[in-house]
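Data deposition worksheet. Section B asks for the primary sequence of the deposited chain exactly as it was used as input, without tags or linkers unless they were present during the calculation. Section C holds the resulting structure in token form. Section D is free text for depositor observations; keep each observation to a single sentence. Incomplete worksheets are returned to the depositor.
Section A, Depositor: J.P.
Section B:
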Amino acid sequence: MPFRISARHWGPMLAALLACLCTGLWAQSAGLLYDPEPPADSAYVRVLLASRDAAVDILVDGQLRIRKLGAGEASDYMVLSAGKHSIAIHASGKSAALLTAPLDVVRGRAMTVAFAALRADVAPTVFEDKANSNKLKALLTVYHLDAKAGTLDVLTADGNTKVFLGLSYGVSTSILVNPISIELMAVRSGDKTALARTSLAMAQGGTYSVLLLPGDGGKLTARAVQNKIERYTGK
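Section C:
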């Protein structure tokens, strides 16, 4: 005889079916909406190519982590476990390393590793980066990475506001500022003649970097970037 479901049984079965379906859809949506949180012992490291070399790939402990990082560019912060690592720089798409360097990172800390030259005899400059603890302000950090530029100041484009003063090569410094859109210029200390200009639009709670780098023809160049962390997938 044919199988039939009575009206009194259909209601409870439909409710159970809908509950299972909604649970499955919610699990799927949650998986799409939220990435895993980095482990509690994570550290954050980005690479800055401060030389005028061609694009490079970055490997950490033998694994490709950053592809085609261009001259004067800073990568997103990589999520690494605390402890010792090895970083290798390769010409983009090539298997042979141009250089390798040891890396020792501390839990909860962020650092920028800047390569001024892709040679084994030139050690990278390592900066310990600050986090923004004030969600109403923006954190602005400047990095002086042009060895030939001398001591520099960073001013607003009209020359009226001194943002950073007396910057020497290989130094970074940070300040909390109002989150506004602004144009900046780098000048020789005590002067107001622009050597390089850059602009950025800041938001509350954001962190930003002004990179002072060697440019084409030996001229100083400036680049402003928003600091970002790579998407963490749990792998």
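Section D:
The chain has two domains: 39-129, 130-228.
The longest strand covers residues 83-91.
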